[in-house]
Description:
The protein has five helices and five strands; from the N terminus they run βαβαβαβαβα. It is an alpha/beta fold. It has a single domain (2-152), classed as Rossmann fold (3-Layer(aba) Sandwich). Strand 4, helix 4 (102-117) and strand 5 (121-125) form a beta-alpha-beta unit.
Amino acid sequence: xxxxxxxxxxxxxxxxxxxxxxxxxxxxxxxxxxxxxxxxxxxxxxxxxxxxxxxxxxxxxxxxxxxxxxxxxxxxxxxxxxxxxxxxxxxxxxxxxxxxxxxxxxxxxxxxxxxxxxxxxxxxxxxxxxxxxxxxxxxxxxxxxxxxxxxxxx
Length: 154
């Protein structure tokens, strides 16, 4: 399962989810372009894809990953999708917290629309437990699998 957790999910929450699902956490680091000294989205995405490839090679399997706190906006999401497609590791699910902070929800609105249009979005309540999330992931997985099965048997 390849999962992104945009926004700022708590570290304890991410660790518990990672342990429950048996997935490594990938946390992008801000990288500055050596020439301009400015943050470089391209370099961040390159480091993310390298870490994913290394993780797949180390474990000799494609169990997936949890991408913490990324993408931050639609431009990041589009660039990330293209980069992950090139290494055959596209995101399967994007978990976003439906925050009580209305300003944060407004910031996430475009990202929510982007992933909802790809049918990858699962919205979560801030108070969701790891068990609730795993249940939603399992139901989403089963729903996708049944759609694929019906499409294959037409």
